[in-house]
């Protein structure tokens, strides 16, 4: 890990460069390409800044729905296990375990998880 510039600072600078290039592009196609690059850099930056907290919130929500489980050490292991647990949740939804009154426990988890994913993917503020 470097001291300065941080990864986020580098991404800010690179995103700014790409946005500037988009504004001063020679044609629409070039402008589009630079804008896509700037937006991609923004997604990477937001993921670096927000992913840890969002993954922990997702884990806690799954604990409430599926039962508590120890969180794995390390980002890769956590991401893998989150995917597996979400697969378990999907299977339980398909079996009807969250129909009726149980749906009230499921919907807040789904809403929070989706909004957090959009916060990473979207360059605009999400409420």
Give a verbal description of the structure.
By secondary structure, this protein is mainly α. The chain has one domain (7-121). It is 75% helix and 0% strand. The protein has 4 helices and no strands. It has helices at residues 7-23, 28-66, 75-94, 103-121. The mean pLDDT is 92.
The mean pLDDT is 92
Total separate domains: 1
Separate helix tally: 4
Low-confidence stretches at least 5 residues in length (pLDDT < 50)?
none
Would you count the extended β strands for me? 0
Helix content bin = over 70%
Radius of gyration: 19 Å
Tell me, what's the shape? elongated
Largest sheet entry: none
Ends apart, CA distance between termini: 33 Å
Structural class: mainly alpha
Query: Element order, helices and strands?
Result: HHHH
């Amino acid at each position: 890990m470097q001291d300065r510039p941080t990864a986020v600072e580098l991404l800010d600078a690179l995103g700014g460069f790409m946005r500037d290039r988009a504004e001063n592009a020679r044609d629409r196609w070039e402008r589009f390409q630079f804008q896509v690059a700037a937006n991609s850099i923004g997604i990477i930056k937001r993921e670096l800044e927000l992913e840890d907290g969002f993954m922990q919130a997702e884990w806690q929500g799954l604990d409430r729905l599926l039962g508590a489980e120890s969180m794995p050490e390390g980002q890769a292991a956590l991401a893998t296990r989150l995917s597996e647990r979400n697969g378990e949740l999907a299977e339980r939804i398909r079996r009807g375990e969250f129909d009726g009154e149980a749906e009230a426990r499921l919907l807040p988890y789904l809403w929070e998880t989706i909004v957090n994913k959009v916060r990473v993917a979207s360059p605009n503020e999400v409420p």
